[in-house]
Amino acid sequence: MAAPLTLVLVLAVTVRAVLFRSSLAELISERVEVVSPLSAWKRVVEGLALLDLGVSPYSGDVFHETPLIIYLFHFVVDYAEIVFMVTDGITAVALYLAVQNYNRNVFRKQKYALEANRYPPDCLELMRSPKEMFYIPLKVATFYLLNPFTILSCVAKSTCGLNNAVIALFILSTIKGSALLSAIFLALATYQSVYPLTLFAPALLFLLQRLYIPVNPCRSSFWLFTLQYGFMFVGSLLVIICLSFFLLGSWDFIPSVYGFILSVPDLTPNIGLFWYFFAEMFEHFRFFFICVFQINVFFYTIPLSIKLKEHPVFLIFMQIAIISIFKSYPTVGDIALYMAFLPAWSHLYRFLRNIFLVSCVLLACSALFPVLWHLWIYAGSANSNFYYAITLLFNVGQILLVSDYFYAYLRREHHLTQGLYLRRKDGSEATLVLK
Amino acid sequence: MGLLSDPNRRKALTTLLTRLNTPICVVCYLAGIAWFMGLAFEPFTLRTYMSENAMGSTMVEERFPAGERALATGREFAGHKRKAGGMPVDWLVKTMQDRGLEVFTQSFSRTLPFPDENKERYMVRGINVYGILRAPRAPRTEALVLSAPCSPDNSNNQAVGLLLGLAQYFRNQIYWAKDIIFLVNEHDLIGMQAWLEGYHHTNISGMDYTPLQGRAGSIQAALSLELSSDVITSLDLILEGLNGQLPNLDLANLFHAFCQKIGVMCTIQGKLQRSDWDTAEGYTHAVQTMMLMVLKQASGRPWGDHGLFLRYHIEAATVRGVNSFRQYKTDTTTVGRLLEGMFRKLNNLLERLHQSYFFYLMPSLSRFVSIGYYMPAFGLLATILLLRALDLWVQLGTPTEVTEDGVGEVEPPSSPGVLSVLTPVVISHLTGVALYTLPVLSQETAVEHFPVSETEAVVLTAIAIYTAGLALPHNTHRFISGEGTEQGWRVLKLVALLYLAVLLGCTALINFSLGFILAITLVPVAACVTPHLPKAVSALAMVLLSPGCTILYCVFIFQELQEAPVSLSEGWMLFLSVISQGILDHSLFGSLVYPLLALLVYPCWLLLWNILFWK
């Protein structure tokens, strides 16, 4: 399996290298869909210039990346293109290994359950075969590497690629069962962009499941492990933040990075939901609605964790998708990360209901973004409402996609316990309705 | 959300849509065409009204007296032009300086990719002369432009004369709050392009020009004047700019309002407005006017010198004097007064024109159709593509088709290899790239080997590649994946349908007319094509509805609407020149129609062609 993966990697690197050399690279790095005020390479360069001059990079209102990133690029700025390509490669390989491992676990569990006769007899066609599962890791890696969104993001040198790599490594170390590494990568991801904090719950659930500790608040072993993991996470977060402080010599970065993410002062249009809303809003409602909008990302963790506590990996997928939809400065690079997981749920395909509609919507919106941007900014004949309408539609499409997968997953689980052919009490055929 | 989550209702809807697919598509197509034709019917259109407050309510007086003197200046200009054999730069500079303007010149040169046979030019070299009247009343941060082209033949002298006359008159007025730039540009659009790029410090078309020595503020609006006779019968307003962009409707309203105030006959597309909208003739007249606008907009060319201003967010229009055989004549003084009035109103603007519509069609100068009214016509056509795609998706065996909402699905159909779909897509696009790049690149080779001129070489190469594309790709998938399968063409058609829908949708947003015209011809092809049709007949139909033939029909219809019908051979020659003009417009001004057709629409049509010959 290594050969096809290498082939995909080579192909991906070639495409990126060609694009880096073409005149398109500059155009792409200006697109608001691809870079956000947080992740724009232009801003990183500005921060580096300030750092070289001995000024705090956060003294202007331009640079909003974390200190670790700027010190990373302080050393490798000449090889930035290679760094971004390698980062994408690492993400893909991490996702590949993670999904491979996860699938092995899933298959083993299914085998035990089959041997224990735990599935209803008519569910055989829902069983997953090794043949079908064999190519999934490769498909996941391909989906990530050759996704136009990832390619655009990489060519624009958006630092979003680095965040994706950290999250992918976090997923890999979690699935491999290494609590310490998982906590460290989670802390790194949280340090980068705050929102991955919500991934704490699925990671904890996964590790608990792996150690056969039941999720039961009355048991001391549950609390012991939770505290242990929480301590590792908080500890490494503290270490990273203190490291940043010592590197920079000031706490400037806290308001400039986290304040910037949470209070959304930059209303440059992007594919998210924040900019238009807050541009239109009266100033004295701002704080209230900031809270309402930000809570969206964190709030869904609780019900989803309760509902999906047996399926933490799917929960990770859901959480990443929710983050990329509701975060304050989303870019297409964030979307690419959760889209990479879609092949892993290809067995849910038969239960998906709106996949055609959703893919049409996402496709059309992706094409319409630049068109409406052109009409608004260059031709001057359209206005921001046109662009926001497409943004809204794009996000509705994403939400439908995610909820469709959620429904399909639950539905499959339901069939696995209740049997594929449901009967009403009077013996007639029943259909499942989500209301 | 009941429709999306309730399987029974979904099933009912899907069954309805798939069973009634063909009738719904036919109805949609006819409704789309009928809706479009209805747009010209006067009760369905809106009367134009002035939205901009700063121009609507203020009063101005027009007192320009010196029409005769302007004509004399025009004659003098003509004499010097003849003597200099081109733009009489020194005379113009001196005359403008005499009138109290700050005068500057800009020289430019440009080599066309191949000779332009319509205007007989290849290596273009010229000089723009412009004078700036500094605003006495305001801090000179904004400007207006009045331009007149200096054409090589004996036309347009009166326009330059009037421009100089207005400059002299404006100089003596004290109410100007915006700088006024009087520009005489050589080689029409090429000179205008050089001047605009110089003014805005951009260089998008690779032109050589000297930088501008004097600048005024940011340009708010521009008028281009074309006048070739001492008296005129009517003034024609030209709005269509590069890539089908239109100026704000308020500019047209302003022109119309002043024509009515001063009593000048005004036309749009050269068509006078008729009052008998309820008769068949009146309606036909409105349709003709609107169709002319649609065709001009679809061509993506700048139809007057104003066309390039629009790219820089500058509202601009061309006013062209027409001298026909009508009795009622208007002298130059009146035209001067009209322009004075328009400039005084524009001078009152507090911000750029933005209140009124940017997307509109005009069946007459006092009536317009806004985007909300004309988009449904396109929407109905685009719906057909989506309905067909849905139908195919259901046929391809998705959960929607399954009787029990996902449960009890039979064997999932073996999906066709990615390769069998990807190959035609890639090959079609490579053909498109060849069509885009080869004609200009290979002109020298073609001239060496065939007895044709460069221009003919370019056009004929384009047509040859276009035709060769028909033969090339439809066999390829067989070499790669063996005999084409039922599933294979369905997947390919699904891809082509969605591709076409997105493509046409984006085109229609930027340039409605182009999107609509392409939709009229391509949608039936895309909706109907399958490999099971009789080959010869359907191949003929497809070729007749291909993008190239659409251009040919448009040429004939355009000539017909302009009341200058042409014979078949003349039409063919016009068609060839239209293609060469399209390629030239792309390389000179960055018009997008040629790359759009070559790189996207043509490959998309080739995909459909591929489906026809799938087996």
From TrEMBL, chain A:
<feature type="transmembrane region" description="Helical">
    <location>
        <begin position="314"/>
        <end position="342"/>
    </location>
</feature>
<feature type="transmembrane region" description="Helical">
    <location>
        <begin position="166"/>
        <end position="188"/>
    </location>
</feature>
<feature type="transmembrane region" description="Helical">
    <location>
        <begin position="194"/>
        <end position="213"/>
    </location>
</feature>
<comment type="pathway">
    <text>Glycolipid biosynthesis; glycosylphosphatidylinositol-anchor biosynthesis.</text>
</comment>
<dbReference type="Pfam" id="PF06728">
    <property type="entry name" value="PIG-U"/>
</dbReference>
<keyword id="KW-0256">Endoplasmic reticulum</keyword>
<keyword id="KW-0732">Signal</keyword>
<feature type="transmembrane region" description="Helical">
    <location>
        <begin position="354"/>
        <end position="379"/>
    </location>
</feature>
<keyword id="KW-0812">Transmembrane</keyword>
<dbReference type="InterPro" id="IPR009600">
    <property type="entry name" value="PIG-U"/>
</dbReference>
<dbReference type="GO" id="GO:0016255">
    <property type="term" value="P:attachment of GPI anchor to protein"/>
</dbReference>
<feature type="transmembrane region" description="Helical">
    <location>
        <begin position="225"/>
        <end position="251"/>
    </location>
</feature>
<keyword id="KW-0337">GPI-anchor biosynthesis</keyword>
<dbReference type="GO" id="GO:0042765">
    <property type="term" value="C:GPI-anchor transamidase complex"/>
</dbReference>
<feature type="transmembrane region" description="Helical">
    <location>
        <begin position="385"/>
        <end position="407"/>
    </location>
</feature>
<keyword id="KW-0472">Membrane</keyword>
<protein>
    <submittedName>
        <fullName>Phosphatidylinositol glycan anchor biosynthesis, class U</fullName>
    </submittedName>
</protein>
<keyword id="KW-1133">Transmembrane helix</keyword>
<feature type="signal peptide">
    <location>
        <begin position="1"/>
        <end position="17"/>
    </location>
</feature>
<dbReference type="GO" id="GO:0006506">
    <property type="term" value="P:GPI anchor biosynthetic process"/>
</dbReference>
<feature type="transmembrane region" description="Helical">
    <location>
        <begin position="285"/>
        <end position="302"/>
    </location>
</feature>
<comment type="similarity">
    <text>Belongs to the PIGU family.</text>
</comment>
TrEMBL record, chain B:
<protein>
    <recommendedName>
        <fullName>GPI-anchor transamidase component GPAA1</fullName>
    </recommendedName>
</protein>
<dbReference type="GO" id="GO:0006506">
    <property type="term" value="P:GPI anchor biosynthetic process"/>
</dbReference>
<feature type="transmembrane region" description="Helical">
    <location>
        <begin position="592"/>
        <end position="614"/>
    </location>
</feature>
<keyword id="KW-0256">Endoplasmic reticulum</keyword>
<comment type="pathway">
    <text>Glycolipid biosynthesis; glycosylphosphatidylinositol-anchor biosynthesis.</text>
</comment>
<keyword id="KW-0337">GPI-anchor biosynthesis</keyword>
<comment type="function">
    <text>Component of the glycosylphosphatidylinositol-anchor (GPI-anchor) transamidase (GPI-T) complex that catalyzes the formation of the linkage between a proprotein and a GPI-anchor and participates in GPI anchored protein biosynthesis. Binds GPI-anchor.</text>
</comment>
<feature type="transmembrane region" description="Helical">
    <location>
        <begin position="371"/>
        <end position="390"/>
    </location>
</feature>
<dbReference type="GO" id="GO:0016255">
    <property type="term" value="P:attachment of GPI anchor to protein"/>
</dbReference>
<keyword id="KW-1015">Disulfide bond</keyword>
<comment type="subunit">
    <text>Heteropentamer. Part of the GPI-anchor transamidase complex, consisting of PIGK, PIGT, PIGS, PIGU and GAA1. Interacts with PIGK.</text>
</comment>
<keyword id="KW-0325">Glycoprotein</keyword>
<feature type="transmembrane region" description="Helical">
    <location>
        <begin position="536"/>
        <end position="558"/>
    </location>
</feature>
<feature type="transmembrane region" description="Helical">
    <location>
        <begin position="20"/>
        <end position="41"/>
    </location>
</feature>
<feature type="transmembrane region" description="Helical">
    <location>
        <begin position="496"/>
        <end position="529"/>
    </location>
</feature>
<dbReference type="Pfam" id="PF04114">
    <property type="entry name" value="Gaa1"/>
</dbReference>
<dbReference type="GO" id="GO:0042765">
    <property type="term" value="C:GPI-anchor transamidase complex"/>
</dbReference>
<keyword id="KW-1133">Transmembrane helix</keyword>
<keyword id="KW-0472">Membrane</keyword>
<dbReference type="InterPro" id="IPR007246">
    <property type="entry name" value="Gaa1"/>
</dbReference>
<keyword id="KW-0812">Transmembrane</keyword>
